[in-house]
Amino acid sequence: MTFTGSSPGVPTRAPRGSSGPGGIRSLAVPLGLGGGLLAAVAVLAVRSPHESGSYGFCPILLLTGYACPGCGGLRSVHELTQLDLVGAASYNVLVVLAVPLAVAGWGLWIARAAGWLRRPARLPAALPWVALVLLVGFGALRNLPALRPVLTPWLGT
């Protein structure tokens, strides 16, 4: 709850729609981002990235021949919209693991912005470093010749 006071010691409630927790403005960014992502997923559900040239290309794959950590992500999300978990994991297992975590994080963001959480959810300070190590490690592992058929089967051996 946000209080503003016209004189010291006399709290008054902030007007609804304010930018404090629970206000409409505090929900605008997370709801707008969620709506935009939902629209993008809807496009992926109806327009398949499996068709040649439908969404462009990965510049890293095109220039180097190596799959980046995000390669196969669009195909993976498309397969998730078709409820094919195995197919989605075959394109990019990292996306399949990240989607539930991203949805949970978005839910916490909404709850915090709405003022439903009394205390802010605190993420570990090392989280960005762990995520970076996972991304770089996955990118390296999926390009090893022995693991390429498992982690990047659509590229072949």
From TrEMBL:
- The residue ranges flagged as biased composition, category Low complexity, are 11-21
Source organism, top-level taxon: Bacteria
Membrane spanning stretches: 27-46, 58-77, 89-111, 123-141
List keywords of the entry alphabetically.
Answer: Membrane, Transmembrane, Transmembrane helix
Does this entry carry the keyword Membrane? yes
Where do the record's region annotations for Disordered lie?
Answer: 1-21
Quote the protein name from its UniProt record. DUF2752 domain-containing protein
The organism named in the record is: Actinotalea soli
